[in-house]
Amino acid sequence: MTDKLREAKPGTTKLGWIGLGVMGASMCRHLMNAGFAMTVHTRTRDKAAPHLAAGAAWADSPREVAERSDVVFTMVGFPRDVREVVLGDAGVLAGCAPGAIAVDMTTSEPSLAVEISVRAAARGVFAIDAPVSGGDVGAREARLSIMLGGEEEAIEALRPCWAAMGKTAIRQGGPGAGQHTKLVNQTLIASNMIGVCEGLLYAHKAGLDLDTVLQSVSSGAAGSVSLTNLAPRIIARDFAPGFYVEHFIKDMGIALAEAERMQLALPGLALAKQLYTALAAQGHARAGTQALHLALAKLSNIDW
Amino acid sequence: MTDKLREAKPGTTKLGWIGLGVMGASMCRHLMNAGFAMTVHTRTRDKAAPHLAAGAAWADSPREVAERSDVVFTMVGFPRDVREVVLGDAGVLAGCAPGAIAVDMTTSEPSLAVEISVRAAARGVFAIDAPVSGGDVGAREARLSIMLGGEEEAIEALRPCWAAMGKTAIRQGGPGAGQHTKLVNQTLIASNMIGVCEGLLYAHKAGLDLDTVLQSVSSGAAGSVSLTNLAPRIIARDFAPGFYVEHFIKDMGIALAEAERMQLALPGLALAKQLYTALAAQGHARAGTQALHLALAKLSNIDW
Predict the structure, then answer these.
(1) What's the mean pLDDT in B148-153?
(2) Is A264's CB within 8 Å of B300's CB?
(3) What is the DSSP letter of B7?
(4) Does residue B182 carry a catalytic annotation?
């Protein structure tokens, strides 16, 4: 165990952050608020303005972030972005010193997490896959569930960082295990979202009062976080993104590809991906996942 | 408002109960424990033994139960049973005096609830549809969600009865509205169960530890009552019935028939019904609904 794997400490451990979207912006800020020195980079520099104003340093590339940091976090959009930002010529691994830790918090491919881990190890760098669940609200309130894959000592060394961003941080296994667990999470949500939308459409067509129906069904065996959090938004016609449709389609695509590789048929997840693909085709790729309701309504020619 | 629609009171209001299965046995018992005089009838008299021992009277037919009661509750299996027990020659309505209340707590067809209500009204009898959510545990612990359809004054008169059996009792509208709401409830559960099973199968094939995965996903956006209550039973290979597969298939069939009548396509519910039909074909009609996992496992040739 090298010096660098001592527990991360504000004032001692220098952190880097790449990707300041809806999720990343809040998560990076929590680490800064915990007292860590921070260097940031993001595709659109404007998005870093609040962090720079609060004392973060700017670097012109992921590589430069890594050159100045002991631990680098990435939170970007798609696996292709992870590949470029972590493995590219100007990427994180190119800038990491031996003993550094590279943490990818993007929901991405388990196989890519394994590839990153192997290439990191060749440079004496530790890699952790650490996707999260909890959405924009969970990120803002530091109540995320962080699903961890990688070497135990590296994961343990970052306990103060996980604690700053989430309420749950559990190691699920070696490289890729965090990503696999996140895909389980998305598989659970996908079919449940179909149920939420179909239940509301049934209630609507039956002439029931939707808010009153929710009072009866939310507290019983049909209760779920999606029902509690998203059904009221659907009823209020609020389809603003907590989590983007296009990102959810990406996640379901990864899960289905992994499942096919493992010879596992997932008919519910496949149906959900088809319905979300229709939703994107209808122009809602940048809406929130609760907009699935619009695709199911359109299917039966219902104006919502 | 007749005398009979004064609020139900132990010592004054005589209750009747028909159907002492897993759910009905507990619910009837709660009313007795609340101090109500009780007359019971059930297809298999042996099942009434504990209630008779605790002071209930026996009647040889639903009609006789009604002849001796101010309020009669039915909790049987299928709509055909409801039709026979409530509308048959030896049924509840044939025995009810004007001003009596007939409450069907079976999950049944909204159209049958309307038919019962019309035929009851012709005799001066009030009808309420009052299906419940919460399963065997909810029935045992008097924590059911009771979904009510019918005339408001009759529903209000029975507040002491609802309070004895459930934690939530909400009027959803006129006759059939309780049944429609229960079908919303089942629609929500159906797709969610697919998600729970598929999530666990993905985790299994990915080589993850299932209990550890549940720790990560249960508390976040993927959380649901089914995940919390049924996933551990699936992991423990416990497929004993809380709620029978064959009853769930019945409920989904009613919901899909109603939806078709309302010109509403519900692809998720349709998929769930197909998978549960396969499960029944595999010999699991009398297992609990969490046994869906076995059908999805078999689909990918996984021994569970």
Answers:
(1) 98
(2) yes
(3) P
(4) yes
Separation between Cα atoms, residue B119 and residue B111, nearest integer Å: 12
CA distance B144 to B140: 9
Contact A104, A129 (CB under 8 A): yes
Q: Give the Cβ contact number of residue A23 at 10 Å.
A: 24
The yes-or-no verdict on residue A4 having pLDDT over 80 is no
> Rounded to an integer, what distance in angstroms lies between the CA atom of residue B257 and that of residue B263?
10
- A17-37 confidence digits (pLDDT tens): 999 998 999 999 999 999 999
Write out pLDDT tens, residues A36-69. Answer: 999 999 999 999 999 999 999 999 999 999 999 9
Report CB contact under 8 Å: B188, A264: no
Domain residues of chain B, as ranges?
3-174, 181-299
The yes-or-no answer to whether A3-174 and A181-299 have a common fold is no
Q: Regarding the domain delimited by A3-174, which CATH topology (the fold level of the hierarchy) does it fall under?
A: Rossmann fold (3.40.50)
pTM of this structure = 0.94
Give the sign of the dihedral formed by CA B229, CA B234, CA B237, CA B242: positive
Q: Which helix (H) or strand (E) holds B23?
A: helix B22-33
Q: Which residues of A touch B202 (CB under 8 A)?
A: 180, 183-184, 187, 255, 258-259, 262, 264, 266
Confidence of residue B40 (pLDDT cuts 50, 70, 90): very high
- Helix or strand or coil: residue B218? coil
CB atoms inside a 10 Å sphere around CB A45: 13
Q: How far apart are CA B252 and CA A88, in angstroms?
A: 51
Q: What is the architecture, at CATH level 2, of domain B181-299?
A: Orthogonal Bundle (1.10)
